[in-house]
Design brief:
The protein is built from 13 helices and six strands. It is of the alpha+beta class. The longest helix has 30 residues. Belongs to the UPF0162 family.
C-alpha cells in the first residue's frame, strides 16, 4: 500500500464509529512493521487521547504478531542460537532496543576471558576464570531483593543492571563459555536453573555442576540428587543432563508469566502464554 493511502487510513483512527475503526485497525495490522514509523509520526502529531491510545494498541499488535512469527522461525530453524531466542523474548518488552549493544557486551565478556584463557587449563580452572570475569570484574549477581521482577527475564536488562534470576544469569554464563569453546550447558533443574561442565568425549555427561546464581559455586552430582530428593523428585535425565535451547526459552517464558501474574498484569501474562504455546506445539 502506498504511503498516501496509509496516511488516509491512519487519519480515520479517531472515527467514533467502532465498526469503521475496527476495519481500519485490521487493515493497518495486516500491513505489518512497515507501517509503524507512520503510526508513530501520527501519534506525535496528535493531541487526541483516543487516537493516541488506538495507535499504541495497533503498534503493539503489529509488534506482537512479529514476535510470534520470529519465535516460530527460531524454533524451526535457528534454535541452536540461544542468544537470538532470548533477544526475541526481549523484543516483547523492548521492541526498539539496539540489540548490537547486547552482542557487544557478550563479545566484550568473551574477549576479557579469552585474554586469560590458556589451552592447558583444567575444567575447574576455566570455571574459576569465568567466575572472575563475570562476577568479580563485570559484577553480575543474583537479584535476591526483587527475585520475581519481570526485568530479570530480559537479557539486556540483566546485562544493564547486572542482576538477574538463575536462568538468565546461566544463559549469559553458558553463551560466553560456548563462544570460548568451553563445554558448559544449561541444566533444567526444577526450582533452580544451574549449569554443567560436560565431557565432550563421554556423550556430554556432566563432569560437575555450577550454581551460577551463587557466583559460580561448583557442585557435585550428589548435590543435585540431594536437591531432587528434597523436592521428592526422581533423578531423571531431564534434571541431570544438559537441556535444549528450546527448553531454556520455554522456561524463561514461564518465569515471565509468573512474574506478570504476581504483578496482577493478566494481559501480559496471557500474551506470554501465547508465545509459550508456539514453542510447545508439535
Amino acid at each position: 500500500m502506498k504511503e498516501k493511502e496509509l496516511k488516509a487510513l491512519i487519519s480515520l483512527l479517531d472515527d467514533p464509529d467502532s465498526e469503521i475503526f475496527s476495519q481500519v485497525e485490521q487493515h493497518l495490522v495486516t500491513c505489518g512493521p512497515e507501517v509503524i514509523p507512520l503510526l508513530e509520526e501520527f501519534w506525535e502529531a496528535s493531541f487526541d487521547v483516543l487516537s493516541q491510545t488506538r495507535i499504541e494498541n495497533i503498534i503493539h499488535r503489529i509488534q506482537f504478531d512479529q514476535i510470534k512469527h520470529e519465535l516460530q522461525l527460531w524454533k524451526i530453524s535457528n534454535s541452536d542460537d540461544l542468544l537470538e531466542g532470548l533477544l526475541i523474548v526481549n523484543r516483547y518488552q523492548y521492541p526498539a532496543l539496539d540489540e548490537d549493544v547486547v552482542h557487544f557486551q557478550i563479545a566484550e565478556l568473551r574477549r576479557n576471558a579469552w585474554y586469560h584463557l590458556m589451552y592447558d587449563m583444567s575444567p575447574i580452572e576455566k570455571v574459576k576464570l569465568l567466575n572472575n570475569i563475570l562476577f568479580r570484574e563485570f559484577g553480575l549477581s543474583g537479584n535476591t531483593t526483587n527475585y520475581h521482577d519481570p526485568q530479570n527475564s530480559f537479557i539486556h536488562k540483566v546485562l544493564e543492571s547486572k542482576k538477574g534470576n538463575p536462568i538468565t544469569l546461566s544463559c549469559i554464563y553458558t553463551i560466553v563459555a560456548q563462544k570460548l569453546d568451553i563445554p558448559i550447558y544449561g541444566i533444567n533443574l526444577p526450582k533452580h536453573f544451574v549449569a554443567a561442565y560436560v565431557d565432550n568425549e563421554a556423550e556430554n555427561l556432566p563432569l560437575f555442576y555450577i550454581n551460577i546464581f551463587n557466583r559460580g559455586q561448583i557442585m557435585k552430582q550428589e548435590d543435585i540428587l540431594s536437591f531432587l530428593k528434597q523436592l521428592n523428585l526422581p533423578p531423571s535425565d531431564d534434571y541431570i543432563l544438559p537441556c535444549s535451547n528450546l527448553a531454556i526459552v520455554k522456561r524463561v517464558l514461564r518465569n515471565l508469566m509468573t512474574a506478570y501474574e504476581n504483578q496482577g498484569n493478566i494481559e501480559k501474562k496471557d500474551e506470554i502464554s501465547l508465545l509459550l504455546q508456539i514453542l510447545e506445539e508439535d
